[in-house]
Neutral metalloproteinase (Nostocoides veronense), 499 residues
Amino acid sequence: MTGDNDHTTRCTIVPPHILERLALSGDAELAAAAREALIDLDARRLHRRAQATPESDRPRRPRLAAGSLEGGPVRLISDAQGGTRLPGTSVRGEGDPDTGDVAVTEAYDGLGDTWALYAEAFERNSLDARGLPLRASVHYGRDYDNAFWDGTQMVFGDGDGKIFGRFTASLDVIGHELAHGVTEHTAGLMYQGQPGALNESMSDVFGSLVKQRKLGHSADAADWLIGAELLIGELAGQALRSMIAPGTAYDNPLLGKDPQPGHMDDFVDTDEDHGGVHINSGIPNRAFALLATSLGGNAWEVPGRIWYAVLTGPGISADCDFVTFAGLTVDAAITTYGVDSPEALAVRSAWAQVGVLGPVDEGEDGSEPAGGEAGGSEPGPVADDDTPDPQPVPSRAVVQVRRSGGLAGLSKTRSISLEDLPAGQEQQWRSVLGGGTLQAIEARVKDGPSRAVPDGYCYGVICDLPPTDVEIPEQQLPDHLRELFEDTLADDGGPGKSS
């Protein structure tokens, strides 16, 4: 990951559509808690550099060789004490006695259980395979309805006490968020479209494996639910996602109905949440759960090792789509167990059942080429003369600016005539639209190695005169353009706000 990712990455466990739904609830307290979570996450995205933990406060250990399991986990738990400045007060380090605070205990134990899965099942020492210390802060914010991985540590809220309880209570949530760190250190799956949905799915898979292994549950005994321990009160027993049956995790007036598809026929095409990364992850989730239950036994063994081998192997790329990933898992199964093995056939069958691969009997050996045509043709190089000549921009031209994604997955759109903007903004828009600046940036993004990051913003701009329809990840925008977009989105012409 690049340095930019260090200050933009935010991976939350509660999907955007759930928080947005709760923010519109008729229950004033629930709506306020949801809005506070959304506002806080966006504020942390903008101000993380100012709140970064001093290097002197971070736990240290000698850098280990890749593959070494020397020394065990290194954990440090801090208490934010209802505030939002991280990390808070250090309350428990590695090997320290229990403090009596249940959230501290759950966080400490959950980090250890996650480390143990990677160490004992996959011979990996922490997120980076070199013993990276695991840090977490508890009691973050007031009635805070979320938990997130910010690229350096875990952060847990206590929940609103009505819909959500303690976020430390769900072991698969802890495993999910930490798995984003593993993905960052390995495949680096871009956070957009199908690669982004795979990124989310990898976290659900390994988060579920942490819980299953801790409980000693076989694939048949596992509930395959993500976040089942979070929902309380009248929603107890429901969850954020179901891996075995996407679309069935919840269905109630407060949260609505789980929108996840379980088959490619129902794939959701959307501009929200980086192309539906939290929604379409249901498809690869179901493929893994189907594979595990068809083979039986412990899911962290054969299925988990196949998925881990692909995630950490040389064949996967940051823009990997569903078909390519499926083909890589088939190849890994064939390499390890043989072309006609039950394991290889089961992998192929699981992906066929969710519509990613065709029927098992289509290929002579049941395999799918890892680098197939599913990814589509790659865009060609952008020539210097591809940038359009400057065009006149009429004062009555209407520009539509849209911001989607972000930590909470909020979407905001504003359409306004240029003549209604402050003079400074109007002149900037005339220059940007007339000079083809946005088209040139979008072309470089499509042709280059750059990629969106988890929970980063994406900006879209549409204008009829001159014709403009672009979408650009935040980290690819120069600061002055991002500020122009935010100022335009803000009704008062000041700093941008979430809504």
